[in-house]
Amino acid sequence: MNPSPEPRPARLAVGVVGAGRVGPALAASLQLAGHRPVAVSGVSDASLKRAAELLPGVPVVPPAQVMERAELVLLTVPDDALPGLVQGLAETGAVRPGQLIVHTSGRYGVGVLDPARRAGGLPLALHPAMTFTGTSVDVQRLAGCSFGVTAPDELRLAAEALVIEMGGEPEWIAEEARPLYHAALALGANHLVTLVAQSMELLRRAGVGAPDRMLGPLLGAALDNALRSGDAALTGPVARGDAGTVAAHVAELRKHAPATVAGYLAMARSTADRALAHGLLKPELAEDLLGVLAAGPAGEGSPDEGPEGDTRR
């Protein structure tokens, strides 16, 4: 006799408060897992377009009606707006006992959901460590995506199940570690976009016709090496202590793209510190290099001290 099949997890009515780039993608992913999006709130034209594309047929209604219709509510609003939203929903009686209240902020854990918890809601913090475009490609990118998860002990299994159903991998983050966790992701992902965009602009000015094609293999290899080897993957004139080349870079940037000088110097100083600490940059080559890097964005000398890790102090 065949064993009885495993019971299917309960299917949930899903609502989205805030149709930014994240909410509709997560709801669409939950729909693929068998859950049922029932309502979404959004105001701007861009939000309404995203909702129509990713959640076709799902009614757009005010947040209070989303709360009325949904068993699982995704609060996908900007970080600074989240505390006020939660407080307002709780004070107006919109939160129902037993309702799953999920926010996707990287900065906050479940403490920000305390007003909803006191009203009987079940709080979860599920932050996808992914950049979103607001299109259907986001749903595909959730496959294998890590989620920073914070949840009360009694809800850990529920949080884990939701992440897995969206194709993600749960990574447990302590409540007090959420700001540091989020800062780490912003440092890596958000600043990477700025650096790549600046690099592409400079290559165009240098006459490169397809900077994206030139940078793609180089940056892909650099990222792969960094993820595999950490600081051991550092290469280039700063890690080599090639002060003359770095000085030439700074001079050219001051001439052609002065707005990029401060960022170049800051990153080069940090690179020099790490290369010194890991024995990649020879101390006898560091002095001239750090002298070049001590100059400010406009070429003035450092007012009172060198960069962190400067061996000349």
Question: Can you describe what's shown?
Answer:
The chain is α/β, with parallel strands linked by helices. It has helices spanning 23-32, 45-54, 63-69, 82-91, 114-118, 137-141, 156-165, 178-205, 211-229, 237-240, 243-256, 261-277, 283-293, and strands at residues 13-17, 36-41, 72-75, 100-103, 122-128, 146-150, 169-172. The protein folds into 2 domains: 13-173, Rossmann fold (3-Layer(aba) Sandwich); 181-293, N-(1-d-carboxylethyl)-l-norvaline Dehydrogenase, domain 2, CATH 1.10.1040. Strands 2-1-3-4-5-6-7 form a 7-stranded mixed sheet. Strand 6, helix 7 and strand 7 (169-172) form a beta-alpha-beta unit. Helix 11 packs parallel to helix 13 and helix 12 packs antiparallel against helix 13 (283-293). It is elongated and about 65 Å long. It starts with 12 loop residues before the first strand and ends in a 20-residue tail after the last helix. Pfam families: DUF2520, Rossmann-like. Residues 145-271 form the DUF2520 domain. InterPro entries: 6-PGluconate_DH-like_C_sf, DUF2520, NAD(P)-bd_dom_sf, OxRdtase/DH_put_Rossmann_dom, TM1727-like_C_sf.
Features:
alpha/beta; 2 domains; disordered N terminus; seven-stranded mixed β-sheet; Rossmann fold; 313 residues; N-(1-d-carboxylethyl)-l-norvaline Dehydrogenase, domain 2
Please give a quick description of this structure.
Residues 294-313 are annotated as: Disordered. The protein has 313 residues and is of the alpha/beta class. The chain has 13 helices and 7 strands.
